[in-house]
Amino acid sequence: MALGWGLIGPGLHADKRILPAIKQSASSKLIGVCHYNKEKADFFAKRYEAKRSYTTMEEMLADHEIQVVDVATPETMHKEQVIKAAQAGKHVRCEFPLALTADECQEMLTACDKAKVKLATGFAWAQHPAHIEMKKRVANGSLGEIRF
């Protein structure tokens, strides 16, 4: 049985990366797309063959066919949306940065732990050349003493 997904925040990244991946996955099914603009929600729902569109997160969270919520909104909205999804019993995949502060991240993790749902983030740049170079410099000590 396919995992039912709901996406909040259909923008460029969701359109180019997230929604095509969900659509192509044999183990996932896009149930709904949420955006405050009805036309935009409808457009993305139709484009990616979702069953429904929503104009509020509450509508989407009430959908029993959705097990996972993908949060693809600006990071200023992540904390509230992740916590609401967790409280609704939904697993969450959230774009990076996960939150604005470490304290916000901890609140999100605590909410997900309490609700017994998973929280994942979409940071996938481990193989970016800049990250590889930075890892080398940290390892070889050329940056000096790393304190944080």
The chain-level mean pLDDT equals: 94
How is the largest sheet built, in terms of strand order?
3-2-1-4-5-6
Q: Profile the largest sheet.
A: 6 strands, parallel
How much of the sequence lies in strands comes to 15-25%
Low-confidence stretches: none
Shape: globular
Tally of separate helices: 6
Span from first to last CA?
44 Å
Q: Residue share in helices?
A: 40-55%
Radius of gyration: 17 Å
Number of E-type strands: 6
Element order, helices and strands?
A: EHEHEHEHEHEH
Structural class call reads alpha/beta
State the gist of this model.
With 148 residues, the chain is α/β, with parallel strands linked by helices. The protein has six helices and six strands, in the order E-H-E-H-E-H-E-H-E-H-E-H.
Descriptive overview:
The protein is an alpha/beta fold. The protein is 45% helix and 18% strand. It contains 6 helices and 6 strands, in the order βαβαβαβαβαβα. Helix 2 (38-47) links the parallel strand 2 (28-34) and strand 3. Helix 4 runs parallel beside helix 5. The longest helix is centred in the last third of the chain and has 14 residues, at 102-115. The relative contact order is 0.13.
List strands and helices in order, with pairings.
Elements: E1 3-8, H1 12-24, E2 28-34, H2 38-47, E3 52-54, H3 57-61, E4 68-71, H4 75-87, E5 91-94, H5 102-115, E6 119-121, H6 129-140
Parallel strand pairs: 1-2, 1-4, 2-3, 4-5, 5-6
